[in-house]
Amino acid sequence: MKMANSLRGEVLNLYKNLLYLGRDYPKGAEYFKRRLKNVFLKNKDVKDPEKIRELIERGEFVMKELEALYFLRKYRAMKQRYYSDVNKTN
Asked: Do residues 42 and 31 touch, judged by C-beta distance below 8 A?
């Protein structure tokens, strides 16, 4: 039972972190929130600790992908701003 509780905590943390990252999702925060909730609800009856760990790992992968997406978007915006400023001064 103890392991199930610790996995539950990990799942809740993952959900909260993904929800936080979803605020800047390109298709909108509400779209992301609905999809996230559906995925978590779809897997709510999974009891096997190994399967739960796999799902947590998949969720952590999605978090890293979202962070990379946002970083790239910021980088492109900064690069575009910088180069448009440089071209205006010449």
From this structure: no
